[in-house]
Amino acid sequence: MDVFVTLFTAIGGALVAGIFSVIVKKMDAATQEQRDAQKKADERMARIEANTEKLAEHDGIILSLAEVAKQLKESTDANGEGVKIIMRYMLQRYHAEYMLQGFVTSHQRTDFLEAYGVYHSKGGNGTAEGWKDEVCSLPVRDDQVVVNPFLAVLKKEKGA
């Protein structure tokens, strides 16, 4: 038994030192892992912050684009209203000309219906629908020479 005590005493210190050394190495490895993990976390956070700044810039750009889109829509709506007014005038003029003429050519009818389609698509009212019905009820005469009745009236006034 003395041999065991002597042996244990002789190797006990070395054993304790070895175990202690293993524990210290494990702790150092764990500490290094923590440092590595912290470094990765810091790098991720830096990327997140950089991306957040980029997103803030993009938000500003998106707000600017939304404002431009709003202005474009307002301009387009105003232009559409202007087109509707011009088309109403054209329809009124065509209607008067064709009614004075007493007939339409197929070309005149096509022009009128195209103008009516634009006017109607812009939200035109029912007045032009009545003009369309009257123009469409006129006889189609492609064999006649068409003279603009407004020009004829002007020529008469100047000649008289």
Largest sheet: none
Could you state the order of secondary-structure elements as H and E? HHHH
Query: What is the overall pLDDT average?
Result: 85
Unreliable stretches covering 5 or more consecutive residues = none
* Beta-strand proportion: under 5%
Radius of gyration, CA atoms, in whole angstroms: 46 Å
For the secondary structure, the number of strands is 0
Explain what you see.
This protein is mostly helical and 160 residues long. The protein has helices at 2-101, 106-121, 127-137, 149-159. Helix 1 crosses helix 2, helix 1 packs across helix 3 (127-137) and helix 2 (106-121) runs antiparallel to helix 3. The longest helix is centred in the N-terminal third of the chain and has 100 residues, at 2-101. The model has no long low-confidence stretch (mean pLDDT 85).
Key traits:
single chain; about 160 residues
Secondary structure elements and pairings:
Layout: H1 2-101, H2 106-121, H3 127-137, H4 149-159
Helix pairs in contact: 1-2, 1-3, 2-3
Short note summarizing the structure:
The chain is an all-alpha fold. It has helices at 2-101, 106-121, 127-137, 149-159.
